Amino acid sequence: MSENAFEEDRRHDAQDPIYSGTPLLETRGVSKRFGAVEALSQVDFDAYAGEVVALVGDNGAGKSTLIKGIAGIYGFDEGETYFEGKQVSIHSPRDSASLGIEVVYQDLALADNLDVVSNMFLGREWLQGKSRLFGNLLPLSEVEMEQRAVATLGELAVTTLQSVRLPVASLSGGQRQSVAIAKAVLWNSKLVILDEPTAALGVAQTRQVLNLVRRLAEKKLGVVVISHNLHDIFEVADRITVLRLGHKVKTYITKDTDQQEVVHAITAGQVKVVPGMSS
Amino acid sequence: MSAHETIENQGALLDSQMPQSPAEYVRAYLRRLRAGDLGALPIIVGLVIIAIIFQSANANFITPRNLVNLVIQMAGITVIAYGVVFVLLLGEIDLSIGYVSAVAGVSAAILLRDSLTNPALSWMDWWNVIPIALAIAAAVGFLHGLLITFFQLPSFIVTLAGLLAWNGVVLLIIGPGGTVVIQNAVVRDLASAVLPPIWSWIIVGVFVAIYGINEFWTMRTRLRAGLRAKPASIIIAQIAFMSVIGAIIAYVFNINRALNAEALPQQGMPVIAVIMLILLMLLTFVAERTRFGRYVYAIGGNKEAARRAGIRVERIRVLVFMLSSFMAGCGGIILASRLKSVATDAGGGSLLLYAIASAVIGGTSLFGGRGKLSSAVLGALVIASVDNGMGLLNLSAGVKFIITGLVLLAAVVVDALSRRRQSQSGIR
């Protein structure tokens, strides 16, 4: 069943020129166990440059496990990961970052007391001069960082910020999410993974963030969005991959499906084995 | 999205709410005040009130002689409070600083004493004993930091254990003699020496010049990079303001403080004031302009975000506890110098609580991520003024502690109210 779904994806993909080349990111048969629990089982997943692919499923479907494996928070127990056609092994967040994979986590990972520029460059500050030993005590290149932050926010048309020198605590939820996304884009990243980017946002702010997500794809980045909100997903995603109980059910092309079909896959999609039951 | 929109949008970001004329600057300041961002204003108002109260009770409070005493009295607390600010910025606490300062003070005093009698130590002099004593203090901080990060222990408990243990170490080192007199003239005079009067003007001039050059340099690089900058008119106004304040300070330091007109004139800036200022500038640079400082604020603001950003959080925490103990060591040597000796009660009494209170009165949050070094100086000035003023009034220790406690309480209440106002007006 899983292999059939995989083949079916490929046939769909061939109809759209975006999917003719090699995927930006591809996992083949990845699994992850936590003790006796199989959180992820034989999952094939791919994301292409210039598209938004959504990852949906109920709680415990394995969305976060898959993302964390790709981000290097922990390794997969089995299976292969390919990035730009080459097999890669990702063991730490640094590995994924050096490939050009950036993850925007649900709880945003911004320091409220720092301003927008400081947050966008956090952990990767530009310094005036170089020193292996005393780098921590070299002056920061504030002007260059501010210029770059302004330029990046401008490219992404994040229009509602009053100033890049305001502390993040004073921003609205949508603005904070925009800053977190811009932070991911700043580093010439190729694949941006967004974990629940519109959770807890109002209508206008959700619109703002979804537009931003589309703009990332227009800039030829690969975008993976995890969300519970199907309405948002149908608005923003090109393809939708459904996970259930750690297995992939199917990948749908958004324009060829509807919410009913996806909901059915999420809640009752057929999987090869149900964990805990002998097959 | 057209190119035109992009440019307009960048313009909006570039504005950075940076006031472009003195009038705008004043308006922006008043707007911040109304929004509850009071800055150093409450402390300055508090200092003025304290000065008025004590001056009306005892005319000796605002005299050049007493003001210089005040500077010497606050020096030890201030320098220790610098370290406390860094620890509080992380959202941690260091209760051991009082006795760690005593460890450094007693180490220096013993080494200097023994260098006179023990031939093996004859190479020791103030210029190598002080670094040795500070290295001992830093090593103590390193130990605290390792315990806190390696075993994942709360800093409150580890440094509470340090408070007890280092007190014991001090008692053991000093031994039954009870007091170690400082034998070295340089260390003895550290707290009390004054510079020739001309130096008051030179030092004020140098500090104002450094400030001005830094501001104009920043303005130039920002403008060249196409960013909005603080306009020259405001920089000049600030330099003028600082010059006036600096001139008043230099003038007061240079008034003859001798009680007796026939005695040798006593005038000039205490060396210790210069040391306090240099440390303040160095540490402010570290806190606000370097990656280390940025990481300290980031960890205090959101530890998990800092970790995910690739910051080696544990390393920074160990370094901060080292810095805290190092600054405590500096304070300990200054305090030893002021008393010209180290006794078994060194590092005890109200020292620890005064140092933490100074940082907190200065507006440093106990929850991490918020605070400034310069306000620790103002906080220490408040604490030392209250202590000094009540000493002049011959009030009992009981009354002193009650009043100091109430001052601390008033400071945190004002801070809490201004923060509530700020969150209502959406600044934080």
Write a short abstract of this structure.
Chain A has helices at 2-14, 63-71, 93-99, 116-120, 142-155, 173-186, 203-218, 230-236, 259-268, and strands at residues 25-34, 37-47, 52-56, 78-83, 86-88, 101-104, 191-195, 222-226, 239-244, 247-253. With 279 residues, chain A is α/β, with parallel strands linked by helices.
Secondary structure elements and their pairing?
The complex is a heterodimer of chains A (279) and B (428).
Chain A: H1 2-14, E1 25-34, E2 37-47, E3 52-56, H2 63-71, E4 78-83, E5 86-88, H3 93-99, E6 101-104, H4 116-120, H5 142-155, H6 173-186, E7 191-195, H7 203-218, E8 222-226, H8 230-236, E9 239-244, E10 247-253, H9 259-268
Parallel strand pairs in A: 3-8, 3-9, 6-7, 7-8
Antiparallel strand pairs in A: 1-2, 1-4, 4-5, 9-10
Chain B: H1 3-15, H2 22-34, H3 41-57, H4 64-89, H5 97-117, H6 126-150, H7 155-174, E1 179-181, H8 185-189, H9 197-224, H10 232-254, H11 271-289, H12 291-301, H13 303-308, H14 313-339, E2 341-343, H15 351-361, H16 373-392, H17 397-424
Antiparallel strand pairs in B: 1-2
Helix pairs in contact in B: 3-16, 4-11, 4-14, 4-15, 4-16, 5-6, 5-7, 5-14, 6-7, 6-14, 9-10, 11-12, 12-14, 15-16, 16-17
Question: Using only CA atoms, what is the Rg of chain A?
Answer: 19 Å
**Level-1 CATH class name of the largest domain in chain A:** Alpha Beta
Q: Number of helical runs of chain B?
A: 17
Structural category of chain B: mainly alpha
Proportion of helical residues of chain B: over 70%
Uncertain residue segments of chain B = 1-16
